[in-house]
Structure formats: structure tokens, C-alpha cells
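Explain this one:

_____
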Amino acid sequence: MTDQVTDHALELTSPPKPTGDARGQAQKNGSPASNARPDDRSPPVRSDIGTILLHWTLVVAIVTSLLTGLRLSSDAEGAWFSKLFEPILPQGEIWTWHYLSAVFVLALIFAYAAYMSLARLKRRISSKKMVVLTLPASTKLRLSAVNVIAYWILFGAVLTLTATGVWLYLGHGGIWVTVHYTAALVVLTYIVAHVVLHYAYGGLQQLLRLFRPQKLRRFPGMAAHPLAIALMIGAVVLAGAITLNYSTLDELVVAKADVLPELDGVLDDAAWQNAEPVFVETQQGSNLKGTGASTVEMRAVQVGDKIVFAFRWEDATRSLKRHPLVKREDGWHMLNNRADLSDETAFYEDKFSVAFSTTDAFGGGASTHMGPKPISDKPKAFHGRGFHYTTDGSLVDVWQWKASRGGMLGRVDDMHFSTPVEPSEAHVAGKARYSAGYNADKGTSFYVYNYHKKDGSDYLSSVDAIRLPKDYKATAAKMGTIDLSVEAIEDEGSQWWMFEDESVPYSSAKDAEIPVGTVIPGVLIQGEYSGSRADLLGGSKWQDGYWTLEVVRDMDTGHDQDLAMTDGLFIWLSVFDHNQTRHTRHSRPVRLTFN
């Protein structure tokens, strides 16, 4: 060493070693021996108030985003990893929490970055520290370098989550769902690694420093109030993101016409010529050639006291066979893959749903509640995916087109989401499907199912057929080409339902006339539509990989389970490709306007 004053070398002499008598005298006087380890009286490590506040706020936002994201991920067909977290995953109206927590994460990332820059704390995450890994260095220095690498991995994962999250919110799925999910798993892994690295670096005291605040040390060039400025920057980002979202919603402008279009699923009528279309990207549904995505084109026109909507969506297959029955040696079997769970994704008809709400709240007007039992005092969902209902007494008006249950016969089912209904004894006993707030409007429909499940069968064994065709050969001819592949395209004009006058009640004698291998429809058309449930008329057609649907209704039906068509309603769209409940997701509603 060198003396900074004299520039002469300093001679550091060792203190004399105590003799045995001196050592004993020191111990006798209560003084520690010179070779005894002194008490560690160094003050506990602390962190500045700004770091503690931003760190824990960001932790809460990220954990909320991860847990709600895992809940949404667990809903996907074939999900397994996210289901491992089922005991700790939240239930209920998840979408709002997921979106808002994601926006808060974005705002906090900006605030945190600004704070580190303004407070001259960027050295904490300086990439220069990584060079230590290439040099001989202490374990602590190496751990510090590894922690910096982990920080930068986190930053990359959060940016990826943000970018792909926005892209998904706008309706683009496919590979971006996988990228988003993978980035979420990286963040989840980082949380565990972050705790382990800090513990390895400084033990429990290093972890406790984020609970021990101290004033920020001043450095030259530091901003006067770095935390306040950083929080203001975060608030601006938060307000900007929310404002941008609501100010850029798509609008469906309702055109005017003098004559109603013909409801035939062909958009060549004069009424449609001045109706500007809106295109909506929907995704994360089942089937649809493995993409789970379908772009929907939507138009609307008002003719007097009527309003007509036109929808055109991508679907590569015309699917009409909803749970058909096939005769085998041991009786009639209803074809299905998950009918016992009310989650069929194979032998089902194509469907399309439109939901209208007075609010643009996330999750279809705050009507989507996720989880196996989102209502603690009501029965759970058979499929464990959740329910549709509202919690504030509001109503979501739902129009559902069902290809084989009247859709090809000019009917669209009028339904709604509202307050959960009280369950029946059959619901409580698990013998009937409880659907909470999702129910048909008052009135009747003209379709029923052509089978009864036998007790304890779960549709895996034979079922009881309700009615049989009068002439099974004539019924087969009306069904067209009978291809039981789930991706088959049913013939145009084919009829995968039986009318009442084409069938007779089941009897052993009639059954004996029908050979093994015969396939008959699983849907019966009998009775008629009535009441509020009969408010909607429609026409549909499938051609060249697209369904086109036209729907007409009174502007105001006067029924309490319908919403009047007024300026400012919000619309959500869902495509079902031969599946029961796994429709495509539409996160960002379209605003209906008559101006």
C-alpha cells in the first residue's frame, strides 16, 4: 500500500500475540480473546422507499396477471400444465382482472424504468456486470451477474407478453397464443429464480431488505423528486392505454333501406349495398381446421321498425350432424366425444352467437365467469369451464343460430344472460345441466332431442331412442351423403333432423325393421316457436368455406328479456365450428350506432 501523504510505503505491523496469562486475564475481565469471532453488529440491509413501492406494486400486478392468465389458459382444450395450479387459481369474472392487471404491468414497467433513470440507479441492472462471469470473481459477484441476466430475460418476457397480449386482444390468435403463453411461463419461472438468487446472494437478510425502507441516497445529477415523476409517467401510460382502447372501438353504422332483404343467406339485395361492413377477428375457438380462428364480417340495416343484420364468417366445413344415432348390435348409440360434460367438440352442428350489451365491460359485458364453480352456492358446471351470467341485474341479449336445430329452417334462438336462476332438484343432484344466467327467452322452441341417456351410462353405452323414422330409407336419402368423419362437409340441402310427421314413437317392432349400421338424426323438429323466444327470423347458407346469416327483428320487441336496438349498444360475436361451447373469443366489442 502507499501513503497518500508521504508517498512512502506503509509498514503494517502485526499486533503482538497475547501470552497465556494475558489471554486468561482478558477472559477473566470479560473481554473476548483476540482470535474469537466478534459479534456481527452491522445494520440490516435496506432498500429505498421508491424501489420498495414500485417493486411490490409490480409484483401484485404481475401475479394477478399470471394467475388470471393461467385460469384462462386452463380453459383451453387439452390444457394440462395450467390445470396443475387449479387449487390457487381465481374464479369468477376473470377477464377484467386479467386485462387491467396487464395494463398496470405495462404502466409500472415504464414507471420503474423512469425511476431507475431519474434516481441514477441504472447500475443495478447494468449489462456491464455480466462480464464478471468471464473473470475470476467471488461467488457474490457471479450471483449478481446472473441476477442481471435474469432481469433482462424478465424485461424481454414482459415486452413479449405486452405485444402478444395486445395482438390477442385485437383478435389475432394462432401462433401468438403459444408465444404469449410461453412468455408467461418464463415470467413464472423468473419469479422463482429471482427469489432463489437473492437468497443465495445474501440469505434471508437480502430478501427482507424489501421490507425495510430507507430514504433514497442522493447522487449528483439525480432528479429532485424521482418517485413522483416516475409515478406520473406510469399514470400517463395507464390513462393513455385505456383512452386509446375505448376511443378506437370499431363502430357498426346501421344503414337505412326501404325494403327488407330476402333472408336467404345471399347478400345481393339492394338493402345491403349501402351498409358498410365491419370485420371482426375472433380466435381461440375449437376446430376451424386447427386454427381456432374465424374472421366475421358484419353489416346492419334498418327498414322502418325492423333491423336486419348480416353476418359472414369463415368455416371450412358445413357441419349439421348434431349427436346422430347409429344402430349397433346392442341398440342405438348417440355419437359423441364429451356429451356427458356438455362439451362436445366432434359430433355437433355449426353455430353462431351474437351478444348485445349496454356496457362494454370486458368478458362480454362482464357476463363471462370462469372456473369449475364460480358461484359458491350454486351447482358447478359439468364441463368445469364456468358460466355466463350478470351480477348487477343487467341483461345481455343473445341471439344464437343453430344449424340443425332450426337454423336451416329460418329460425334463430332468442336467449339471454342475466342473474343466475335458482337450481332445480335435478340440477343440484347433477342429473341436469345447470347453466346459471344463460337461458332461453320466455316461450317455446320447435326442437327436441331424439334420445334419453340411460342412468349411469354417460353416453358411453346405448341410449333410448325417442322416435324412429317411418321410412328409414327415405330419411337416409334426405340426410344426403352419410360420412361420420367430424370434418366431413354435409351436402347442400341435406337434412340432419326429423320432422314429427316423418317419424313415429319408438317401438320394438319398428326398431326390428331397421338394420344395424343405420344412422338417423339426433334432432326432432316438432311443435312451434312462441313468445319472446320467437322474436328472430333468419336465413343462412354455406358456400365455399363461409357461412352467411341474415337475421331480422323488431327494433323494440317490448319483451323484458330483449334489448331495444338503440345507439350505443355493444356487440360480441362467437363462431362455433361443430362444437357445443368452445366458441371463438371476441375480446373487443363493436359499438352499434345509428348516426
